Amino acid sequence: MSHATTSRSERARRRKRQSVAASTLTAGLLLGALVAASPAGAALRSTHPSSKRPGDYRFNAPDAAAVAGADLFVANRMGNSITEVRASNGAFVRLIEGSRYRFDEPSALLVLGKDLFVANAKAGVTELAISNGALVRTFRGARYFSGAVALATDGSNVYVLNAGGSGSVTKLAAGTGKMSVAKFRFDVPTAIVSVGTELFVTNSRGNSVTEIDATTMTSNTLKASRYQFEEPTGMAVDGGAVWITNYLGPTVTVISASTGELVKVVPDMDGNLPNPGPIIFADGNFYAASPPGSSPMITRVQPGNTVMMPWMMCNTNGPYEFSNPQALAVAGSTLWVVNEGGLNAPYGPSLTEMNASSGALIRTIS
């Protein structure tokens, strides 16, 4: 397998695009990719017979996904809608849309209890019932929301990462709906995770991570050279460790959630982890997406075996049709890849379903 790395000019273009994305309060933070067409991929492309017609999925710049029970929910940022898919077979369930939801560029999804929380890049948060997609309530207010790009929870509260202005975190009590906001000096924040009483936020342009005490909302910035942060973009949690992808590293920095100290830096071994962005932890493994270059790649990394990575799947070694992957989700034994499409990629928006153990392609849904 071969994989093209990203040139300096491509990296410079991505930095410029990222700054523009922050200023316009959009959630798309990763470069698209040019990929080679695969005849075999067309044969595997499908819509489920339960769909009324091809196109029911209505993917439109999908940027986020979340698994709840038997279903996978996908946020269509430019379509102002949520597509619900049966996680076991890719069947279309419903399209959640309409003015009552007040979707405005939905950019992040979070499951908490029986509800799905949707962060809208331009206007607040929408809460839905997972069982039927019904509207529960909406949260609005310029005081609390400004360019929401990511969500996290401690089980009782929802934390909304706002990229607008100098950046802030809104704390939303899921039970009562009470809100409070704390402002920080973030520098193009892209991701937030919650571990115990601590929150961690990536500052992609600032090459740092902000650690926040969720009880007092006081912060500390992690920026020492030993962390080797270089455009940190995505985050995932494994027990007491936070894994942070460095897009321009290209590496993964692992830190202790309790102390903020460096645990290790996972290197890019022979091009197996080029320009990593989104990352997710599930069933003992990490999965990272690397959008740029001639072949977008999905890499599985075992936390205890980071020298020899188990598999790396890209468009040049299989008919995956990855197209600017923006998010990852795991449901049982399957890994779902959310492909935004566009940005000069030959394939349109879609979902790629893979076997989480072997990396084998199951189906592509568009």
Helix and strand topology:
Elements: H1 8-23, H2 39-44, E1 45-46, E2 62-68, E3 71-76, E4 81-86, E5 92-96, E6 106-112, E7 115-120, E8 125-129, E9 135-139, E10 148-153, E11 157-162, E12 168-173, E13 179-183, E14 189-195, E15 198-203, E16 208-213, E17 218-222, E18 232-238, E19 241-246, E20 251-256, E21 262-266, E22 279-282, E23 285-290, E24 297-301, E25 311-314, E26 325-331, E27 334-339, E28 350-355, E29 361-365
Parallel strand pairs: 1-29
Antiparallel strand pairs: 2-3, 3-4, 4-5, 6-7, 7-8, 8-9, 10-11, 11-12, 12-13, 14-15, 15-16, 16-17, 18-19, 19-20, 20-21, 22-23, 23-24, 24-25, 26-27, 27-28, 28-29
**How many runs of DSSP E, i.e. beta strands?**
29
Form type: globular
Q: What share of residues is helical? A: under 10%
The CATH superfamily is known as YVTN repeat-like/Quinoprotein amine dehydrogenase
Report, as a whole number of angstroms, the end-to-end distance: 26 Å
The CATH topology name reads Methylamine Dehydrogenase, Chain H
CATH level-1 class:
Mainly Beta
By CATH, the architecture is named: 7 Propeller
Strand content: 35-45%
